[in-house]
Amino acid sequence: MKIIGIVKKDKKTKNLIHRLNNGDIALVQHKDIDEIAALSLIEANVKCVINTEKSISGKYPNLGPLHLINNGIPIFQTSKEIFNTIKDNSKIKIIKNSLFMDGKFIAKCELLDRNKINRLLKIASNNLENELDNFIENTLAYAKKEKDLVLGNIKIPKIKTNIKNKHVLIVIRGKDYKKDLITIQNYINEIKPVLIGVDGGGDTLLEFGYIPDIVIGDMDSISDKCLKIANEIVVHAYPDGRSPGYERVSKLGLNSIVFNSPGTSEDIALLLAYCNDADLIVAVGSHSNMIDFLEKGRKGMASTFLVRLKVGSKLIDAKGVNKLYKSNLKLKYLFSIWAAALIPIFITLVTASPMKDIIRLINIKLKLLLGI
């Protein structure tokens, strides 16, 4: 195998995505490549991925690498030191298991083929029970620290967007988020819910032709364009008040509201909608199963469980909306519309002079045949 291309690198894959061009080589430091990262790299149409961390560590069965090779994108494993050795935007070459930069050999690399990936996924699946035990213990420990999320001791900032008694659609860059958004477009266009984008979810709304009413998050994966277009910005800050996202928004000369809270930006978006009396909260791309939580890679996902306990009565996943929500246009209505459209055509034909003559001739022939 021989691959030649321009390399782009970043320690955070979600930041790298915005800099990649068609045919680039992506150099990442991404332990356990998750599905969202893999799908983003596929959309960027990278030539290949070089990872200086273990793409599958065996911690849990992450399917990112399998998605990449299924879409014809090779994955190479190499040593951690190489990340600093390779220069961003330099031209590199991969020949068999060797990496070259500027014509000079710099390191060995290993191609992760399908057999290796399947073997590693099998090991990871066998380890899943142990990982789940650790996850539960860790979650319970964090739940004690973050119980204020449920008890109502978190101060909810006042927003200008009116949410009361309305449907709220929250878009998160999670598994199948674009596919789910496509399935509920009829719902969005007819019901017109309040649109909230969580970080990069705001850009997804723009991509689908919708302007976010609110964007919320730590602002590390949302574009300047989306921040400038969104009607309202809510910056997620740490409980101690630190807020890197606020600095970014301020540098753009934009106004924002700060929401100090533990947990994830996804969690506080749900809280914001719930505490402002939303009638129904529809989540696109939210984390809803064990692998989703493990892929999130947080030490404590307790806040996610706690928030769902609080907002559960109003929360529905977008995957269910497409089944629950049906357009009012039923078959009998379609038949009525079709029949109504034919009436003026029939009247026009009957009243037209040529048609009158034809009907008169047919009438005469029938009388002759019947002997009337």
Automatic annotation (TrEMBL):
<dbReference type="InterPro" id="IPR047795">
    <property type="entry name" value="Put_SteA-like"/>
</dbReference>
<keyword id="KW-1133">Transmembrane helix</keyword>
<dbReference type="GO" id="GO:0009229">
    <property type="term" value="P:thiamine diphosphate biosynthetic process"/>
</dbReference>
<keyword id="KW-0472">Membrane</keyword>
<dbReference type="InterPro" id="IPR022215">
    <property type="entry name" value="SteA-like_C"/>
</dbReference>
<feature type="domain" description="SteA-like C-terminal">
    <location>
        <begin position="319"/>
        <end position="370"/>
    </location>
</feature>
<keyword id="KW-0547">Nucleotide-binding</keyword>
<protein>
    <submittedName>
        <fullName>Putativ membrane protein</fullName>
    </submittedName>
</protein>
<keyword id="KW-0418">Kinase</keyword>
<dbReference type="GO" id="GO:0016301">
    <property type="term" value="F:kinase activity"/>
</dbReference>
<keyword id="KW-0808">Transferase</keyword>
<dbReference type="GO" id="GO:0004788">
    <property type="term" value="F:thiamine diphosphokinase activity"/>
</dbReference>
<dbReference type="GO" id="GO:0005524">
    <property type="term" value="F:ATP binding"/>
</dbReference>
<keyword id="KW-0067">ATP-binding</keyword>
<dbReference type="InterPro" id="IPR036759">
    <property type="entry name" value="TPK_catalytic_sf"/>
</dbReference>
<keyword id="KW-0812">Transmembrane</keyword>
<feature type="transmembrane region" description="Helical">
    <location>
        <begin position="333"/>
        <end position="352"/>
    </location>
</feature>
<dbReference type="Pfam" id="PF12555">
    <property type="entry name" value="SteA-like_C"/>
</dbReference>
